[in-house]
Amino acid sequence: MKNDNFKHNALKILKLLNENREKVGELLELIDEGMPNVETKTLGGKVFWKKIVDHAGWRLQKNKLMGNCRILNPEGIRVAWGGESSMRRAFNKMIDQA
Length: 98
Prior knowledge:
alpha+beta; 3 helices; elongated
């Protein structure tokens, strides 16, 4: 029973997020920290991503559909993702350490 409620609620949340994609970024802002990340090679973000900051090959990008942000290293690998505020802080910290 408990597992069925979890599945039902999870599906309800996913449906709401799908219907309100632009709210994903707002939700991540409430969390106010980066999300767990698996470093992943990307295509560079030429279609669905807007450049916010580019510094020495490092890129901070914002998704045009959902509003979430990500940081790509100079090789185009996603090293972090989350809400805009937390990704700006993480990006600034990364370039300060470089």
